[in-house]
Design goal:
The complex is a heterodimer of chains A (160) and B (389).
Chain A: H1 2-10, H2 17-23, H3 28-40, E1 61-69, H4 78-85, E2 90-95, E3 102-108, H5 111-122, E4 128-135, E5 141-142, E6 145-146
Chain B: H1 7-10, H2 16-25, E1 31-32, H3 44-55, H4 68-82, E2 92-95, H5 97-109, E3 115-120, H6 126-132, E4 136-141, H7 152-158, E5 163-168, H8 181-193, E6 197-201, E7 226-231, E8 244-247, H9 250-263, H10 269-281, H11 283-306, E9 319-320, H12 331-342, E10 344-345, E11 347-348, E12 360-363, H13 368-388
The chains are: A alpha+beta (160), B alpha/beta (389).
């Protein structure tokens, strides 16, 4: 049942708990408890709003940085990953297989701000061997959501 | 000038849905719960295969009965999902939607005067196709107290010495009713004893929410007397691709293929290539759509029961068939006045046969937000009608 709940709210955190209880044939209080338990266990790690900032007047720059690092004895990549993800500018950090070690996603107001973060904060870290910064030019789809998809229902109004 | 029209065709009444469609179309801001097709787009991997087939220039005819590769995949799929075993070369035909399969199945099997038992409420084409094939439709009225399932006794009561065919359509449009294995076994006994052929329209087979769908053709003694009709429209959200299929005994499929060959030539080639991908790689997408329909189904049953409208729990397709008898109105009046007053379109049960009187068909192939808005308006309408009683 837990998986069913998680699947149901994964793409719609705003769903009314009363409706969800009906749809999953659960008691409303039990459902609320189960969600709270998932939050405590950090299975549900947060609720975000997916915003297409390109459509606002706010300037926002996202960069994907490929980072090569030296893992530390006994700690592997975790220690250096933590040194990086603690920065508030960093929105995501993933350990990767392949030609580099960490993908670091950084958000800033301007390209200059991001570049300064990389050159002054990220690159000088002791275990960081190299960085390659790629700026995001346009977001087409993020977190499973297509930004520009028209949502008009083009079906006939009544059909057999 | 002479009258060039065929009486047989002129005498057929246009579909009740058509009439209602014309009224709804004039109301631009109406919310509709009247659609008989999925709200999902065809899964992208399937669309992409269609595009790829066009890029490769596969714009030629296929063999009459359909691409070998697709027919083979259909047979693998039917075996995997419903334990049905058919030969893809001789017992399978790809058609232009399930609708064409119904038409040619009837035309290939009836002689003038043969009786075809049609349990109603049902999909709109069975009766006119029977008439066009020069057979005699025998309407069997399914009952709400049986959850719109076909019972053994009802079937026995409709059989005469002219009965040749029974059209069986479960999961059902418009009621959402399903029939499980035990229920099918009961009627199969009669069908075998009376030597009847079944045209089993299983287009909603993937949308079964309690237990697994059982095809009547999988029961002992039924394979040789059943034409199974299925397709891609509902399960894979591919209505516009117009692709269905029929499997059945070799001698019947052979004759159906003859009609198909002369009337249609072959099903659309692009659709056939896309459908191969649907058969091979869409289990997850189908499961996702089914889960989503099931959740909305539960929400709607709860909402209609809260409104005080009687509604049996349908376990198939994507329709609810609540009764509006307690409001003292006909289905037509309910649907027309609801549209006028609250701008919500539903389909009157009578569009699917006279036994649909007193019921309305609600489709839940809509987003939850839309369903909530529409049902809140229907609730308001029901409340005002009840106050007038």
């Amino acid at each position: 049942m837990r998986n069913k709940i998680l699947k149901a709210i994964e793409n719609n955190a705003k769903v009314d708990i009363k409706d969800l209880a009906i749809m999953l044939e659960m008691n409303e209080a039990d459902l609320a408890n189960e969600i709270a338990e998932c939050e405590r266990e950090k299975i549900i790690c947060g609720y975000h709003t997916l915003i297409n900032w390109d459509k606002t007047e706010d300037e926002k720059v996202t960069a994907l940085i490929e980072v090569k690092v030296t893992p530390q004895r006994g700690l592997g990549f975790d220690k250096i990953a933590e040194r990086i993800y603690r920065f508030s500018e960093v929105s995501s950090v993933f350990l990767m297989s392949g030609g580099f070690d960490l993908t670091v996603i950084v958000e800033g107001k301007t390209m200059k701000e991001v570049a300064l973060f990389v050159s002054q904060k990220l690159a000088p870290l002791e275990s960081v061997l190299s960085t390659a910064t790629c700026f995001v030019l346009k977001k087409y789809k993020d977190d499973g959501v297509i930004f520009e998809e028209p949502s008009k229902d083009e079906r006939m109004l009544v059909s057999p | 000038m002479r009258n060039f029209l065929a009486n047989k065709v002129v005498d057929i009444q246009p579909s009740g849905i058509r009439k209602f469609f014309d009224i709804v179309s004039e109301m631009k801001d109406a919310i509709s719960l009247g659609v008989g097709e999925p709200d999902f787009d065809t899964p992208w991997n399937v669309r992409e295969e269609g595009i790829f087939s066009l890029e490769k220039g596969r714009t030629f005819y296929t063999s009459n009965a359909g691409l070998f590769e697709l027919r083979e995949e259909i047979c693998i799929y039917l075996n995997r999902r419903y334990s049905l075993r058919y030969d893809y070369l001789t017992e399978t035909i790809v058609t232009v939607g399930g609708s064409e399969a119904i038409d040619i199945a009837l035309r290939a099997t009836v002689n003038p005067g043969d009786e075809v038992i049609i349990p109603q409420p049902c999909y709109v084409s069975y009766e006119p196709c029977t008439i066009l094939a020069d057979a005699v439709p025998v309407i069997l009225d399914l009952k709400a107290e049986n959850d719109f399932k076909l019972t053994k006794q009802e079937l026995i009561d409709s059989i005469t010495d002219k009965t040749k065919i029974l059209i069986l359509a479960f999961p059902n449009n418009p009621t959402g009713a399903t029939m499980n294995k035990a229920e099918l076994e009961e009627i199969a006994e009669v069908i075998i004893e009376k030597d009847i052929l079944v045209i089993s329209d299983e287009i909603y087979s993937e949308l079964t929410y309690k237990g697994e769908h059982v095809s009547i053709a999988s029961l002992p003694g039924m394979r040789e007397r059943t034409i199974v009709i299925n397709g891609f429209s509902k399960s894979f959200a591919m209505t516009g691709w117009r692709l269905g299929y029929a499997v059945g005994p070799k001698d019947i499929i052979e004759q159906m293929t003859k009609i198909h060959q002369f009337a249609i030539m072959c099903a659309p080639t692009t659709s056939q290539y896309a459908a191969i991908e649907a058969m091979r790689n869409c289990d997850d997408a189908v499961a996702m759509m089914k889960d989503s329909y099931d959740q909305r189904r539960k929400f709607l049953i709860h909402t209609f029961r809260e409104m005080g409208l009687e509604c049996f729990e349908p376990f198939g397709a994507f329709y609810l068939f609540p009764s509006i008898k307690s409001l003292g109105m006909t289905s037509d009046e309910f649907a027309t006045e609801l549209l006028k007053e609250q701008k919500v379109a539903v389909v009157p049960g009578t569009a699917f046969g006279n036994s649909g009187e007193g019921f309305i068909r609600i489709s839940y192939a809509y987003s939850l937000d839309k369903l909530k808005e529409a049902t809140s308006r229907i609730g308001e309408f029901v409340k005002t009608r009840r106050e007038k009683l």
